[in-house]
Task: structure prediction
Amino acid sequence: MNPKLLLCLALVLSGCLLAGCANEPTANPSPSKTTGRPQVFPPIEDVRTFFSGSNEWYGHSFREIISPPQVTRVILLEDKNLQNPYFRKASSREIQDYYNRWLDHLEISDEKAGDPFVAAYEGPWPQFAVITKSGDVIYLQACGGTGMLIFGHGIIGTRINITGFGRPSGAAKPPLNASHSLPSVEVNYVLDQKPDHWAGRRFGQIIQPNKIKRIVLLWEDMTILGHFVETPELHDKLLALYGYDRANRPPPAVAAEVEKQEHQIAYGKLLDRFEIFDQKGGMIHLAENEAILANLIFLADSGRVIYLEIVGVIDDHITGVLLHGSGKGVRINLTVLPPASDAKRAE
Result:
């Protein structure tokens, strides 16, 4: 069948699904605790694209991909080294200055973007969200100190190698002036995380669906993908809408649309459940048997940015969420079992 026809079919059927043909609402209506009327979360966007999408970043430098005049904020989302007891405890200013210099080094570098990969010797390093003037989110994930993975919505992920940072060189380029430098890295989404006025508030009071304009999925663990997102029942139902099944595999365009719809529906349902829970925010913490299962960014109409980490026990259930804002953060305990477990308990 003609690939263009398949893509048109995917778009048409996607519209039917959004309208409720599959009895799986992707608009995510949830009853408000205050008004009783449904509130709506916007669709979830996934920045991680590896096989389909534009490859417009390939062959370009960091400054061509992330142009300082187009950037409004750079937010440090995570740096596991800050929790390493063997490392010297640096001040917030020292950490900020270090990452400012690091990103300035990338802006000066002539290294070109290529295929994304992480070498075996490259450990986990910091992660950043870059917010642009157009409201887009670019996700940066460092690979040790030797590379940077770059992801953007609808654009195939890429990598730029980091060379020469911290080493003097006779051929070193002059430092960037202020007009060509990125905004200072905001480190208080990781540091100084105290409940502040979020203490004692529910999820739906901190993240109000009708005030959120975009939700961006940055990363997810295979645990949450297999247990809560791409469930066999949902996958089969979506394939059937497009006239396919597991034995009769769809072409790439349809498969990509099915995966997109799976994320829309499943994460929409999770957010609906989070929004109606009564549990209140408290101090951020992780138990020894807990891990981060997914990371999302919420952009509000006011320009506020909230970073969400879904917490759970691997291969078991979701135990809560960590909400991070500028200089504040809370944990809300929210027990969510996989759909199959819920069904068994209901019997």
Notes: Residues 1-30, 34-38, 167-174, 343-347 have pLDDT under 50 and may be disordered.
